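Notes from hallway chat w/ T.B., transcribed later so I don't forget. T.B. wanted the structure written out for a chain they're using in a teaching module, and asked if we could keep both sequence and structure tokens in one place. Agreed to drop them here.
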Amino acid sequence: MRRSGVMRAALLALGLILGPGPGLSGCAATPSPSPAVPAIRTLAVAPASAHAASISMLMERGYVIRHADAELGRLEAVIARWPGYRVRLEIEAAGGVNGEASVGRSRLAMTAWRGGRPLPPSLVEPLLTDLNARLER
């Protein structure tokens, strides 16, 4: 009699520990993040000049350049302010007549993330405006 009471208490305790687990572990899925939409601007400067000015501007704002490749036209920078910001810039020669690349024009596409979530293009526009102002001087 005593043995079955101990066994029943042990099974009850085990059921309380394991019981809710399978029932609560069902279909709780996190939604996938929305894709980042870049802010795009065309500037009347060569891609190499736009790349160099972008590095300078971001460094002055406190960003650390993680990757910069002028030949590929890519730049990635981060800033350690909470919750963490990351900026990615892609620069290419802008299309001229009949889709051919124009020598003195660049197409910039800037994307930014805050805490791993993409920011809307409207929040990236001030960076592109600052860059444009620097290049017009």
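Follow-up for T.B.: The chain has a mean pLDDT of 82. Might be a good example for the class.
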